[in-house]
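Many introductory courses stop at the sequence. We go one step further.
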Amino acid sequence: MYTAIGYAAQSATTPLAPMSFERRSPRVDDVAIEILYCGVCHSDIHQARNEWGIAVYPLMPGHEIVGKVTAVGANVTAHKVGDLVGVGCMVDSCRHCEACQSDLEQYCLEGPTMTYATPDRVDGSNTMGGYSDSIVVSEHFVVKIPAKLDLASAAPILCAGITTYSPLKHYGVKAGDKVGILGMGGLGHMGIKFAKAMGAEVTLFTRSASKAEEGRRQGADHVIVSTDAEQMKAAAGHFDFLLDTIPVQHDLNPYLDVLRFDGGHI
């Protein structure tokens, strides 16, 4: 065990504040990481305020973690001291169910261990996230970060990035496909970038005409203001895929109309 420091909420109504706490020493399959950057995801705010009703306090958020390896357990082979690495929203799973064996640990049939506010599967302690100076994680849930990436910019890839990349990859978006990105928040930015990098023709759908310039700056080929009935009508049957990043409940029907026959809403 060693003493770490970070920022944690002590209740749903208190602000994040400095806190010292105990991190475990690396187990045989663990990687110890000095945290250099951690993104701020809106999920962190939901959890800190217990808006989902599952918070455990003290709660130390942070699941877009980039850092440098400072120590490794005896059985670690994938990482070494000095490596640049990242940690996302999970730090463990059962490892043996059908989902885990398929490298889909997020669907672990026993439930994954999240990076914070979840009981550790070995000692039962409350996991603490990346709003801290260090973290210890099983090597299976640690990924390499290419040295050529800007580390601060790379941190959001661990959550917002994979959230948008995964469905685009899973449904086989390829060069020439016509992809619509619904919404221009944090996820929408990432969706535009990934779809464009995959060679797709990318259109941003937004309720705010003021976001058109930003959408094009991020790589969108076209922008449709979704509250404009004429623009939506002109887009009918045009798209192969829609990636929906709108974070509030909304009517899907106007968007489904712009999909071509057998297109995908993802």
